[in-house]
Amino acid sequence: GAVVSQHPSRVICKSGTSVKIECRSLDFQATTMFWYRQFPKQSLMLMATSNEGSKATYEQGVEKDKFLINHASLTLSTLTVTSAHPEDSSFYICSARPTINNQPQHFGDGTRLSIL
Amino acid sequence: EDQVTQSPEALRLQEGESSSLNCSYTVSGLRGLFWYRQDPGKGPEFLFTLYSAGEEKEKERLKATLTKKESFLHITAPKPEDSATYLCAVQAVGGGYQKVTFGIGTKLQVIP
User: How far out from the chain centre does Cα B11 lie?
Assistant: First the structure.
């Protein structure tokens, strides 16, 4: 149960390119999805909370115009890194929490983004 | 501000050598404490949720316990396949915005 699919798993692209990452909950509905960034030897840093049918909530210091989030349905959220630069290179992970209260988040397998 | 501190940062065990990982937390009111396992290059895999002090949960060689200030993940007779980074996270009570705060993790290596 509780499977979250994240695609693509790896992206290598040139500076200035925009990159879209998809996160799908495969066997449950998720009103709320989360986008994290993880640097080596550091904890998961929450970037934004994605709410189905409404605007995302961004954490302090995260540029909402840089990291565009769309949560169009109860099973799909997308993160678009616009005009990516080398400093955006990182491991991005999404998670989804079932709509039922007190259920844990389930994570995708992450996207390794490398900007040349 | 909610805080999660995990120790040790890294742990090396011989196969069969039992040990415990620690997660100390500070939160205004605990809604839930979560343990995850993360393999290199992968997203975290959910292991346990604990809700109140005194609660214990088990899964194969793993047992998680909870007090008002910390949680332990006990690993009994570990095997090499238990090697991974173990993450602890807390979620606070209250408000519509239920942010989860993660610790940095304990990297466990089990040697055959």
Answer: 14
Nearest chain B residue to A42, by CA: B104
Return the residue matching tokens 């509780």: A2
pLDDT band at B29 (very low <50, low <70, confident <90, very high): confident
Chain B residues touching A44 at Cβ < 8 A: 44, 87, 89, 102
Report residue B99 as tokens. Answer: 């942010």
A74, A31 Cβ separation under 8 angstroms: yes
CB of A101 within 8 Å of a chain B CB? The answer is no
- Check residue A97 and give its pLDDT: 87
Q: Which one, of B109, B20, B13, B2, lies nearest residue B56 by Cα?
A: B20
pLDDT digit string, tens, across residues B7-26: 999 999 999 999 999 999 99
> What tokens were used for B19?
């040990």
